[in-house]
TrEMBL record:
Residues 25-35 have a biased composition (Gly residues). Residues 1-61 are annotated as: Disordered. Part of the 30S ribosomal subunit. Contacts proteins S4 and S8. It comes from Sphingobium scionense. Pfam families: Ribosomal_S5, Ribosomal_S5_C. Residues 65-128 form the S5 DRBM domain. This is Small ribosomal subunit protein uS5.
Length: 239
């Protein structure tokens, strides 16, 4: 390139060609890249914060719920190349305050099967009215398939007289005193379903009084109790 005053040819400086294109396109693209990077980092950071909050809520919910692994079974599927093995898990979940549910899940690994079953159980939770927060209001019968179960209310100090899958249901439900009996099959799936069928028929005096348009004390007096005792028992009923 020539100088206007001396008409001398000035040799290009080494590295000028490398720096000039960078200077020509740098400001716009450089700022754009920096801005885009900041925005991307901001978006990623925002998503991370939202995920962290969601994870905290899940952890808090997991701390409040009682999870019981009832049964796990290895299952197989025959395919062209041989057999594919997996695992099936049965889980009972409850809050210990009158709400419980059960679910089952299948996966190639045990932890994944348990997590699927737990998520299914949380979606299927039902509320069961409890007497004094420790036992059932009345006796009940449950039936599913070849499984038949009987559940009975019990006085304080009796404990959970139940075995196998039924014990897991009442422990997660928050029942402290109950007497149960299972007849027929010992299949845990049918026993769990029969137990929840019996719990689904549970009703409290308060709900019956509201349905019939009466007072709880009036219903309790039909058993031969005095008006004072019936009124005291009606006030002690929480549900």
């Amino acid at each position: 390139m020539a100088d206007e005053n001396t008409n001398e040819v000035v040799a290009p400086v080494e590295g000028a060609e490398a720096t000039a294109p960078t200077e020509g396109r740098g400001p716009g693209r450089g700022r754009g890249n920096r801005g885009g990077g900041d925005r991307n980092r901001g978006e990623r950071g925002g998503r991370g914060r939202r995920d962290d909050r969601r994870g905290n809520r899940d952890e808090e919910q997991g701390e409040e719920l009682i999870e019981k692994l009832v049964h796990i079974n290895r299952v197989s599927k025959t395919v062209k190349g041989g057999k594919r093995f997996g695992f099936a898990a049965l889980v009972v979940v409850g809050d210990g305050k009158g709400r419980a549910g059960f679910g089952h899940g299948k996966a190639r690994e045990v932890p994944e099967a348990i997590s699927k079953a737990t998520a299914s159980a949380k979606k299927a939770m039902v509320r069961v009215p409890l007497k004094e927060g420790r036992t059932l209001h009345h006796d009940g019968l449950g039936h599913f398939g070849a499984g038949k179960v009987t559940v009975r209310s019990a006085p304080a100090g009796t404990g959970i007289i139940a075995g196998g899958p039924m014990r897991a249901v009442f422990e997660s439900l928050g029942v402290a005193d109950v007497v149960t009996k299972s007849n027929g099959t010992s299949n845990p799936y049918n026993m769990i379903r029969a137990t929840f069928a019996a719990l689904g028929e549970q009703t409290s005096p308060k709900s019956v009084a509201q349905r019939r348009g009466k007072k709880v004390a009036d219903l309790l007096r039909r058993g031969g109790a005095s008006a004072e005792v019936a009124q005291a028992d009606a006030e002690a009923i929480a549900e």
